[in-house]
Amino acid sequence: MKVLATSKKPSDTKSKRLKYVSLERSWPVLNPVLLGFMELKQDNYFPFIPKEQIPFYIEKAIQFGQDAAQRYANDFSLKEFINILLKQGVRVNFVNTHPSDQWIRAQYLEKKSTIEIYRPSLVQIKSFFQEIDESVDEKDIIVLHLYHEWFHHLEEKKFGRTDRSLPKTRIKKWGPFVYKRGIRRTREIAAHAFTQAAMNINWSPLLLDYLLLFTRQGWTKTQIREHFQQIKNQYEQLTEPEFAEDDEQANP
């Protein structure tokens, strides 16, 4: 495996581990369940999930990732992590840019057993923390990417894909035939839960993803806070007992 150097600058002795960084002091935050709800809403088959089952998919995906972290992860240093990946036959490449999607930070290429990390993501995350006066260890930012993609490697090689461990949802009925599909976004929810548990950080990496996305789109903190409140209200409506009962009566 060949790992390209990301920087030749001397390390900052004041930099800190991500597990010692708090986002709550500087930014609006959401808990992992509500962030999982935001992620699930992006799934192509989200409209077909019965509303009373939405919390089930989110909570099971989070639990799946947390359980995997307990079995396989241990807050590894970058050096330890690279050695583990080497033993598993996984390559790590740093790439200047994704060929087609600027929003992708890293990806696991199953056929090549390779994790690609895109350099702009490292720069963006480091700058994000610098703006809130947090000098974060660059190695930890790399590890953050590696854990997420390693989870997808483990899904393929060790314990199976998250979406295939959960019930498929019915999307269509044609005569006697019922068509069902897995909910692929549960894989991302689980990967973020895996990464958070493995690195022992007090915020979900999915929160960081959304903060980076919204700030890049020019959102203010007030707009982000209002959006998060809307997500919270939507989810609370789903989980209210009266709502579930009404939904059951409307769809016997």
TrEMBL record:
Q: What is this protein called?
A: Uncharacterized protein
